[in-house]
């Protein structure tokens, strides 16, 4: 329970840079060697096609995610590459850029339902802002939306502080028709990536003023996000002032919320 409270309220977050030593990287490689070959074929293919992509920098991201538990990091790394190849095909073995892996998604990026804000919370955590209004499942495939999500997360993870301190997710559903925009299959894919393979520490999920229908499907949403995030799930209701005060108690400034809700 202490860990949950710490994640919600940003308690105990350190500003000390978590460096990765050559010795730790060697232990990480040894942990990878222990994983059977048939389980890591996507990683092996990446090492063969583009060895510069699976470098020390990328491995360090997974080590920070795992708090330097090398076996945990290695297992996640293998799952990551399996999912990356499944999602991007052969483009997975090249940098995830708009002119390569995401060429088909350029137009979707302009109305993508999740974006990384330039502002961070009071504790230095990155903020993912979710707005269901732009996402119309009749127009965008769930795979396209997921590829865009991966692109945004990878951009945010260029910041070592974010690798270490993590993310918070805020979803504004006040103006969205959830019955039209909620796609259970797409959300399941996204949270599978978050919980099983992406090296991102998602510390909490915040929902702004859900509708009556939103409350009806809340059990489905909580089931999809998984047990760990279910305990870090916060719903903000009431007047604008009450909502702003509620966010402030979690280290998320009023300016950040107003900059998004009054766009």
Explain this structure.
The chain is α/β, with parallel strands linked by helices and 263 residues long. Helices cover 51% and strands 11% of the residues. The longest helix is centred in the N-terminal third of the chain and has 19 residues, at 70-88. It has a five-stranded mixed β-sheet, sandwiched between helices.
Biggest sheet character: 5 strands, mixed
Percent helix: 40-55%
Strand order of the largest sheet: 1-2-3-4-5
Termini distance? 36 Å
Number of DSSP E strands: 5
Mean pLDDT: 88
Topology:
Elements: H1 2-9, H2 22-33, H3 41-49, H4 56-65, H5 70-88, H6 106-109, E1 114-120, E2 126-130, H7 142-156, H8 160-165, E3 167-172, H9 178-181, H10 184-196, E4 202-208, H11 212-225, H12 227-230, E5 233-236, H13 240-248, H14 254-261
Parallel strand pairs: 2-3, 3-4, 4-5
Antiparallel strand pairs: 1-2
List keywords for this structure.
263 residues, 14 helices, 51% helix
Summary, kept brief:
Helices cover 51% and strands 11% of the residues.
